[in-house]
Amino acid sequence: MCGIVGYAGSVGNAKDIIIDGLKRLEYRGYDSSGVALICNGKLEVRKRVGRIANLEELIKGETFDSKVGIGHTRWATHGAPSDANSHPHTSPDGSIAVVHNGIIENYVELKEWLIKEHGITFRSEVDTEVIVHLISVFFEGNLEDAVFKAIAMLRGAFSIGVVCKNDPDKVIGFRRNAPMIAGIGKGCNFIASDIPAILKHVREIYLIENNEMVVITKDDIKIYDMDRNEMHRDIFHVTWDAESAEKGGYEHFMLKEIHEQPKGLYDTLHRRLDENDMIKLDGINLTKEHLENFNKIYIVACGTAYHAGLVGKFTIEKMAHIPVEVEVASEFRYRDPFVDDKTLFIAVSQSGETSDTLEALREAKRKGARVLSVVNVVGSSVARESDDVFYTWAGPEIAVASTKAYTTQLMSMYIIALYMGITKGTIDKAYYEEFIKDLKAIPEKAKAALATEPSLQVFARELYKNEHVFFIGRGPDAGVSYEGSLKLKEISYINSFAIAAGELKHGTIALIEKDTVVVALATQDKLYEKMLSNIQEVKARGAYVIGLAKEGNDKIEKQADKVIYIPECRDELTPLLSVIPLQILAYYIAKERGCDIDKPKNLAKSVTVE
Ligand code: F6R
Predict the structure, then answer these.
(1) Using an 8 Å Cβ cutoff, are 195 and 181 in contact?
(2) Which stretches does DSSP call E strand in 94-237?
(3) Which residues have C-beta atoms less than 6 Å from ligand 1?
(4) Distance between Cα 573 and ligand 1 center (Å)
(5) How far apart are the CA of 371 and the centre of ligand 1, in A?
(6) What is the residue with the minimal CA distance to atom 5 of ligand 1?
(7) Tens digits of per-residue pLDDT, 16-39?
(8) Which CATH number fits domain 253-440: 2.40.160.20, 3.40.630.30, 1.10.340.30, 3.40.50.10490?
(9) Which atom number of ligand 1 is nearest to the Cα of residue 354?
(10) CATH architecture classification, 3-245
(11) Active site residue 2
(12) What pLDDT digit, counting tens, does each position of 524-575 carry?
């Protein structure tokens, strides 16, 4: 949450480079934005509530001769979105500016101390303001010294960017449990919360570790630990092409990312297959002995990633013969779960920075579990703190609503399950080969599932005025229902609700009345008849039913009002396909309702606060 960009260089104007970077980070928060620029010995700060376009409007016509600066796009935690609460925050004399991502947990006591001991007057409600005042209280000519002293007093998870007009050539960054990278340019260097912000300018970066300070000038980048030892860091080469973080002709990132799913699925699978179609888990050391030692697996994640876990459970239990529990990270970390050295903990996260997932992972590690993570962002915190990492190959996901990350997470679950099964000997070679063959057919079938788009556009026009939508399904379809429902609610603000279809009659069916829209997933051959009965139940109460089934299973047409078909495939794999029409439906309904699809209200892409 919140995006930070910092620039020091002789190439171009700091203002333009920083604003461009902020626009590429807007998915991290978009309540307000601001910049602090050092211009001819002065510190110029401009900030504005609302989207970055508002900030651009504010500074339109102003020319800033700036080579050093920081910028911020905000997702509010402390204090409502307002001009005063926007970052950067400045010292009383206007010489130092700070941008911040995260939460300062002890800011109340620090604020009292600053007021009492230093007579500081606070101008905002945000926790960030204590940071800039602490730095200014400690500043005696050297910015690094002052920042180190201030940091020593802070508790919480945060990353910051700092500039000072009295130490004008540098930008300082600091990371503690919130993401930060440094970009290595020619005649310029960067700090940023995330790679897309600077990908246009650099492809070589340093990953900043926890409790490290990074100091950039136009010619140099230095990294220090808390004891001020200079740290050596290997260069990380970014392999994404710059276009993958652009909209590429699509109206929204979400639609582009929906269409990138066949490629993401192909890449995630094929990166893990050798020439004999055997799974190679480079960088993962889970032997037969390890797998035989596990008596329990936890899959722990948040939101969409949690929904991927719900589907993954079915295949992992079936193939690896190990019980799997799936749990949301924010609950897992506080309930003292039973975990020991016979537990495999699988963390699933697109960003690899989700605070709840990271803390749950740490808790599991403390208790002796082995940690395998399924992560999209290379070098992220979850990846770095895991024993083994399975990277998904979705490419950068920019839209706040997750789509291609979900399907590649599902693909990863199947690969992990197959690997466990064949390594432990709980599945045989013939079953393995058949399953791999079916998995290899999925990317083409995903393209066919995308072909539902024109008819879904028509459905969306009919449905967008509804204020309540229900999603029902059984087995893996129940997991996909949760995901379909989340997609719809988060981008269209329709009150959507998902429930296992068999559970409906135990209470929720009370809400079904004439014309209530119910999306019924019926892709599981062995549960097909049962689903048809559940559809009958809601039809009997007047529901308007959109059925989703495999091609050829057309008995559903007798009961549902509309039917969407996905290509034929084995039951276990339908989630890879069935979610695609649900994503498209959510997209077009949100579009009909005039919603800001890539930046839904109250949300941010990477949830780095509790
Ligand atoms: C929904 C969505 C969120 C994330 C969740 C976890 O579309 O994107 O529910 O799935 O915040 O994020 P990651 O996967 O980055 O840990």
Answers:
(1) yes
(2) 96-104, 156-164, 171-176, 181-184, 188-192, 204-207, 212-216, 221-224, 236-237
(3) 302-305, 349-351, 354, 357, 401-402, 486, 490, 606-607
(4) 22
(5) 19
(6) 303
(7) 999 999 998 887 778 899 999 999
(8) 3.40.50.10490
(9) 16
(10) 4-Layer Sandwich (3.60)
(11) yes
(12) 999 999 999 999 999 999 999 999 999 999 999 999 999 999 999 999 999 9
